[in-house]
Write a structure and sequence with these properties.
The structure is a homodimer of 184-residue chains. By secondary structure, chain A is of the alpha+beta class. Chain A folds into two domains: 6-68, Orthogonal Bundle (434 Repressor (Amino-terminal Domain)), CATH 1.10.260; 77-183, Jelly Rolls. In chain A, 23% of the residues lie in helices and 32% in strands. Chain A is built from four helices and eleven strands. In chain A, the strands form three sheets. In chain A, strands 1-9-6-11-4 form a five-stranded antiparallel sheet, with no helix packed on it. The radius of gyration of chain A is 20 Å and the shape is elongated. Residues 71-105 of chain A have low confidence and may be disordered. The interface between A and B is large, with 63 and 65 residues. Strand 4 of chain A pairs antiparallel with strand 3 (95-101) of chain B, so a sheet runs across the interface. Chain A binds a DNA duplex (30 and 30 nucleotides) through residues 24-26, 34-41, 43-44, 47-50, 53.
Amino acid sequence: MDRTKPLAIIAAAVRRERERMSLSLGELARRAGIAKSTLSQLEAGAGNPSVETLWAIAVVLDVPFSRLVDPPDDGVRVVRAAEHVAIPSEHSPFTGTLLAASPPGVRRDLHVITAEPGPARTAEPHIPGTGEHLLVTAGRWLCGPTGEEVELGPGDYAYFPGDRSHSYRALEPGTTAVLLMEYR
Amino acid sequence: MDRTKPLAIIAAAVRRERERMSLSLGELARRAGIAKSTLSQLEAGAGNPSVETLWAIAVVLDVPFSRLVDPPDDGVRVVRAAEHVAIPSEHSPFTGTLLAASPPGVRRDLHVITAEPGPARTAEPHIPGTGEHLLVTAGRWLCGPTGEEVELGPGDYAYFPGDRSHSYRALEPGTTAVLLMEYR
DNA sequence: TCCTCGTGTTCGGCTTGACGAACGGCGTCG
DNA sequence: CGACGCCGTTCGTCAAGCCGAACACGAGGA
């Protein structure tokens, strides 16, 4: 499984999530019912916190346990419909193409989205570590991080990090896609 | 975030994963470099293990930390294309339908799958906690856990747990779908 | 200026988890 | 049968995490 020292990761993650919620160290400690000294040492990367302690923190921060343990990624990937490599498998009862395998510890929302032709609509960057997987089912999309937009047709797949400004634009009526949004 | 007591979950998860690897309690303890008494108490649901301890165990069991902390789920969900509730959002530059929000701590693979009409193909159950999300893009599928198959057309969405025997069957030529497989 | 409140840090004391040895229970071999 | 091996549990000791108070620092306000 994972490679890096858990201590530093957890320490950084707790601090990051805490600041994301705009909570002071003392306030978080109070809400979590732990001593702020404990939290201070934890964020300093010292010691070896117990499950109970971490759990209480995760609950208050409203993040899964896992969020306190994994790192980020980057880049834009596109797999054209024509490039799909069909893999007949004995293990699966169908022919499939693997588009993206996820690292552990992500949350994700699965959407179906539709848009009509018009001006590009831009989304503000989400929190770091967010990613968007798009699989076009009909029409044509022009989308991606600002300045790196790609045009996608039916069957095309694209991934790009969501922590940068990015836009979506439909080029044909009834343009639809499956959108998988991932958060850490 | 989560609701249930972490202790019992972790205890059960460790025992489950340990037995999956056919390791004795003592052997796991030895490999992980912890006292077997510690492991014994942990599996008994007593105490409040430290991160270091859990980490060592997770490494030996070759599972992500998260696998030791989240529970299972069940049931089959279907959202018909006609039932998709379009949500125009100011936050998103498109109209979307949320099909499924993920529980924390999952790994997932995103596939595009295609099949031609023929006999149903059955998949063996995967490890507990596995789930499959299917969104039909063309044709008609008949699939689901054995005995609970549902018929799906373009735009239809279904979820079912993958830890039971289940089958896929295409009813029309060129039947395709987006398949999101989740593991814990 | 002085006081107050907020931040995050460091310092004793107590609690508790981790350790290793010793224990009882089974199956196997001499 | 007794002796060994492995299983998992229980017990006493020790180290370490957790706690709460005291601490230093900076930003306002009177």
